[in-house]
Amino acid sequence: IFENPTFIKLEEELQKVKTAQGNIAQHINGDVTTANFLLAIPGRLRINYPTHKLSLIINKGVLIYYDEKLNQKSQTINFNNPFLKSLNQLSLKGKHYKVTNLTETENEVIILVNFTVEKREETHKIIFTKNGESFTLNRIEDLTPGSNIYLIFSNIKINNPLPANSFAIQNTKIDKNFDF
User: What number of H helices and E strands is found in the chain?
Assistant: First the structure.
């Protein structure tokens, strides 16, 4: 798989990503929740769920869950999700997971990835749309038996500047200067 020309091109594009932002439609067991995301390499991700007034903020192994409605935050240090550990450098050759298959159609590249989360084996399908000589993340599906979860990505912008406070909690009632 690693010698496939499409895989090599896709890996090269991922290595060039320093920031990304866009929208997510998260489908879980038939329910759809929309969110927007900000990503900064290495290791920063923020997912905002405006309808629920929730934010997940990840920075180098620390996960902050912030509930604006309840004005509460919780923090987890060194969480063990291999897929999220890969945020330090975007790559399909990650040490925390294994690419097991690559399928290419005229318009898409489909990659299967296996990894372990808390002693449970998971398989995810990652679908990239081809745009001439480049690729855009389109969808991630959890193929694990019993799971009915997938994410659809849209309006992705790569390597645009992000505001300096993108990964701070925007509520002074919690922590006036909370940031990583």
Answer: 2, 11
**What is the average pLDDT across 65-76?**
76
Q: What is the DSSP letter of 3?
A: T
Q: 3-state DSSP helix/strand/coil percent for the chain, to nearest 5?
A: 10, 50, 40
Q: What's 88-146 look like in SS3?
A: HCCCCCCCCCEEEEEEECCCEEEEEEEEEECCEEEEEEEEEEEECCEEEEEEEEECCCC
- Between CA 148 and CA 32 the distance in angstroms is 12
Structure token pair of residue 160:
């645009």
Name the 3-class secondary structure at 151.
strand
96 vs 17: CA distance, rounded Å = 19
Residue written as tokens 């998260």?
Answer: 26
- Edge-first strand order for the sheet with 149-158 is 72-77, 62-67, 54-59, 44-49, 31-40, 19-28, 149-158, 134-142, 120-131, 108-117, 98-104
Reported as a single tens digit per residue, the pLDDT across 102-154 is 999 999 999 999 987 777 888 999 999 998 888 999 999 999 888 899 999 99
